[in-house]
Amino acid sequence: MFSFFKKKTPPPAAPAAPAPPEAPPAGGQPSPPPAAAPAPVPAPEPAAPAVPAAAQPPADTPADAPAPSPVTAEPARRSWMARLSAGLRKTGSGITTVFVGTRIDEALYEELEDALLMADTGVKATTQLLQTLRRKVKEHKAADPAAVKALLADALTELLQPLEKPLVIGAHQPTVIMVAGVNGAGKTTSIGKLTRHLADHGQSVLLAAADTFRAAAREQLGVWATRNTVDIISQQGGDPAAVSFDAVSAGRARGKDVVLVDTAGRLPTQLHLMQELTKIRRVITKAYASAPHEVLLVIDGNTGQNALAQVKAFDEALQLTGLIVTKLDGTAKGGVLAAIAQERPVPVYFIGVGEQVQDLQTFKAREFAEALLG
């Protein structure tokens, strides 16, 4: 499932006569949206454009514009949930075995503490989870290990809940999304998958190949652009900030819904390279005063506590608005999301468990907790 918030254009004034019964659009011409808040739209139905093509110049949303309305896609998630559970098995197995053939005593809590720390949940998150679990066990008078395990899932869901937030598309024309991450985290591939999801939901996308340092990065993004039939702005060996400026300017001129800026991989310890990222952000703002509207960091779920360090460093430099967590399949360190929720709760927009486009899905706290604990 892929879901995001999509802003609708303001509805026209209601006619004096009663409105006729609602009917589907005819001949491809969009019909005026109803005055009431729209209901969720199923995945097969593409979203309408945020602003009619070339109808008005790019500008920020007026103060009196309606709030973004939800557009969600709800295809069957069973197969993906099975892959998520399988991917998190290495992380969860050490935790779930604590509840096998045991009594609810202090020894169980000590074993559970060790298992959570081994899963890279972190000291602070582990402490909070155990405190919450003890309270819930006392409140529910739980004496069965299976019941305690279910209460742990509840506690983990509560901890992760602040990370569950939809991506907002359509509040600006275009919505400019800057994407950062260290080399090898799956940044460019995640951009390609996100582009596909946006295009499938009726969004016109422009890609900016601002990763001008890594060999073949421009070509890799170009392949995704061709595959998804979207425009791309690139310059061989060009300045990344200049490419970003040109792309944002082109996105505004062409009336695009989304501009995705792929930046070069950076290690947070490389100060001069991190300064290059802040320069890109400043230049994007020069091209569009309110941009970037989203600053995403792609992190590798296999890196554990190092992923938390990356979130802190990139957040301080770029003011992150969201995360994409990749490679959760097969990792023993998936508990790092709990550490992020406790110490630097930047929303997790998407999580990835494979190489296919459909393997990048929206993050939901309850689903993740249940998949982790089996």
Automatic annotation (TrEMBL):
Its main location: membrane. GO terms for biological process: SRP-dependent cotranslational protein targeting to membrane. Pfam families: SRP54 (PF00448), SRP54_N (PF02881). Residues 10-24, 30-49 have a biased composition (Pro residues). GO terms for cellular component: cytoplasm; plasma membrane. It comes from the Bacteria. InterPro entries: AAA+_ATPase, P-loop_NTPase, Signal_recog_particl_SRP54_hlx, SR_rcpt_FtsY, SRP/SRP_N, SRP54_GTPase_dom, SRP54_N_sf. Residues 50-66 have a biased composition (Low complexity). PROSITE patterns: SRP54 (PS00300). It is found in: Cell membrane; Cytoplasm. Residues 347-360 form the SRP54-type proteins GTP-binding domain. GTP binds at residues 181-188, 262-266, 326-329. It is a peripheral membrane protein. Its EC number is 3.6.5.4. GO terms for molecular function: GTP binding; GTPase activity; signal recognition particle binding. Keywords: Cell membrane, Cytoplasm, GTP-binding, Hydrolase, Membrane, Nucleotide-binding, Receptor. SMART domains: AAA, SRP54, SRP54_N. Residues 1-76 are annotated as: Disordered. It catalyses: GTP + H2O = GDP + phosphate + H(+). Part of the signal recognition particle protein translocation system, which is composed of SRP and FtsY. SRP is a ribonucleoprotein composed of Ffh and a 4.5S RNA molecule. Belongs to the GTP-binding SRP family. FtsY subfamily. PANTHER family: SIGNAL RECOGNITION PARTICLE RECEPTOR SUBUNIT ALPHA (PTHR43134). Involved in targeting and insertion of nascent membrane proteins into the cytoplasmic membrane. Acts as a receptor for the complex formed by the signal recognition particle (SRP) and the ribosome-nascent chain (RNC). Interaction with SRP-RNC leads to the transfer of the RNC complex to the Sec translocase for insertion into the membrane, the hydrolysis of GTP by both Ffh and FtsY, and the dissociation of the SRP-FtsY complex into the individual components. This is Signal recognition particle receptor FtsY. It comes from Comamonas flocculans.
